[in-house]
Amino acid sequence: MGIYGTKMYIVVNNSNLVYVTAAKTAKVLKAITLNQPRSVVFYKTNAFVTSYNGTVSVIDTATMAITKTITVGSSPEQMVVANGKLYVANSGGLDYPNFAKTVSVIDLTTLAEIKKVTVIANPIAVTTDSYDNVYVLSLGDYDKVSAGMTIIDDKTDVVKTAPTVSLGYNVPIYAQGDFVYYPTADNKIAVYNSKTQTSASANFITDGTVITTPYAISGDVLTGEIFVADAKDYSSAGTVTAFDKNGKKEYVITAGISPGKIALINK
Question: Is this structure's pTM higher than 0.70?
Answer without folding.
Answer: yes
